[in-house]
Amino acid sequence: MTLRLPLPTDHVDLWHASVNESGTPARLAQYRDLMEPHERAQADRFVFDKDRQEYTVARALVRTMLSRYLDRAPADWRFEKNRYGRPEIIPAPGEPRLRFNLTHTRGLVAVAVVLERDIGVDAENLTRRDVGPSVADRYFSPSEVAELATVTSDARQRRFLEYWTLKESYIKARGMGLSLPLEQFSFHLSASNPTISFDPRLVDEPAAWQFRQFWLPEHLLAVALRRESGADTEVRVRGVTPLMD
Question: pTM higher than 0.85, yes or no?
Answer without folding.
Answer: yes
